[in-house]
UniProtKB/TrEMBL annotation:
<comment type="similarity">
    <text>Belongs to the MsrA Met sulfoxide reductase family.</text>
</comment>
<dbReference type="InterPro" id="IPR036509">
    <property type="entry name" value="Met_Sox_Rdtase_MsrA_sf"/>
</dbReference>
<dbReference type="GO" id="GO:0034599">
    <property type="term" value="P:cellular response to oxidative stress"/>
</dbReference>
<dbReference type="Pfam" id="PF01625">
    <property type="entry name" value="PMSR"/>
</dbReference>
<keyword id="KW-0732">Signal</keyword>
<dbReference type="InterPro" id="IPR050162">
    <property type="entry name" value="MsrA_MetSO_reductase"/>
</dbReference>
<dbReference type="GO" id="GO:0005737">
    <property type="term" value="C:cytoplasm"/>
</dbReference>
<feature type="domain" description="Peptide methionine sulphoxide reductase MsrA">
    <location>
        <begin position="54"/>
        <end position="194"/>
    </location>
</feature>
<dbReference type="GO" id="GO:0008113">
    <property type="term" value="F:peptide-methionine (S)-S-oxide reductase activity"/>
</dbReference>
<comment type="function">
    <text>Catalyzes the reduction of methionine sulfoxide (MetSO) to methionine in proteins. Plays a protective role against oxidative stress by restoring activity to proteins that have been inactivated by methionine oxidation. MSRA family specifically reduces the MetSO S-enantiomer.</text>
</comment>
<protein>
    <recommendedName>
        <fullName>Peptide methionine sulfoxide reductase A5</fullName>
        <ecNumber>1.8.4.11</ecNumber>
    </recommendedName>
</protein>
<dbReference type="InterPro" id="IPR002569">
    <property type="entry name" value="Met_Sox_Rdtase_MsrA_dom"/>
</dbReference>
<keyword id="KW-0560">Oxidoreductase</keyword>
<feature type="signal peptide">
    <location>
        <begin position="1"/>
        <end position="34"/>
    </location>
</feature>
Length: 254
């Protein structure tokens, strides 16, 4: 927005006081001038929601699953919940036959379903029976929920490829059509981020509803779990250090 060419005539004109106002405004808005209170201005949505697609996966504890996908370029929103079972209105302490799941809203122009599948396979042990890592139980089973024949075909191909890597054990992952996804209670959303009040503060202490829809919160949730790619982790580290040095403006984007 610098208009060097037109600056001098403006300076000499009777609009001089207006220019001063503009300069003052720029200085006040600049993070370099010091302390700024967190405000709650919401971020603009990265893409119109009609062009977004949704994918649902189960791969162990949903706290971690959400963090696995939240930092990926093209992922706009993440939500944890319950899916794959028949119990109506499951809750964390009584989820019945459902699996802990993550719902991912993504921009298919930036990241494809195929790429999400790759992340799914590389982020958990699909051969572990009745659990994932230290988490034991049916709720931690591995599932790809599909919507339509194209997704279920891609899912099957990716599973065959995964099984072909080694025949010594069975890939336990199920592929099933998505029925209902029940969002989990608020305290389970962005769980990793909520464990780090400092990081929550850094992005402006978003109210719960906004936190759940925020792309930045999804990314910072991954960062908190150290599940962003190493390069991105370092970038965010640097931004945070910069903010601390300058005195608490708000982290808006990464
Ligand atoms: C399934 O896909 C269709 C478009 O292919 C979409 O309109 C619909 O909302 C999707 N359903 C779910 C549950 O994501």
């Amino acid at each position: 927005m610098t208009r060097r060419g037109s600056l001098l005539p403006v300076f000499l004109s009777h609009h001089f006081s207006l220019l001063l106002l503009i300069v003052a405004g720029v200085l006040i808005a600049s993070p370099a001038t010091g302390i700024r209170l967190p405000d709650r201005k919401s971020e603009p949505p990265p893409a119109p929601s009609y062009s977004l697609k949704t994918a649902v996966f189960a791969l162990g504890s949903f706290w971690r699953s959400e963090a696995v996908f939240g930092c990926l370029n093209g992922v706009v929103r993440t939500t944890v919940g319950y899916s794959g079972g028949s119990k109506p209105n499951p809750e964390y302490r009584s989820l019945g036959d459902h699996a802990e799941s993550v719902q991912i809203e993504y921009d298919p122009k930036v990241i494809s379903y195929r790429q999400l599948l790759e992340v799914f396979w590389s982020s958990h042990d699909s051969r572990q029976v009745f659990g994932q890592g230290p988490d034991v139980g049916n709720q931690y089973r591995s599932i790809i929920f599909t919507n339509g024949t194209s997704e279920s075909r891609l899912a099957s191909i990716s599973k065959e490829r995964e099984q072909a890597k080694s025949k010594s054990s069975i890939v336990t992952t199920q592929i099933q059509p998505l029925e209902t996804f029940y969002p989990a209670e608020p305290e389970h959303q962005k769980f990793e981020l909520k464990r780090r009040p400092f990081l929550q503060h850094l992005i402006g202490n978003l109210p719960e509803e906004e936190l759940q829809r925020s792309t930045l919160a999804a990314r910072m949730n991954s960062y908190a779990a150290e599940l962003c790619p190493p390069r991105i982790q370092r970038q965010i580290d640097a931004k945070i250090n910069d903010i601390i040095r300058k005195g608490w403006p708000v982290l808006r984007d990464i």
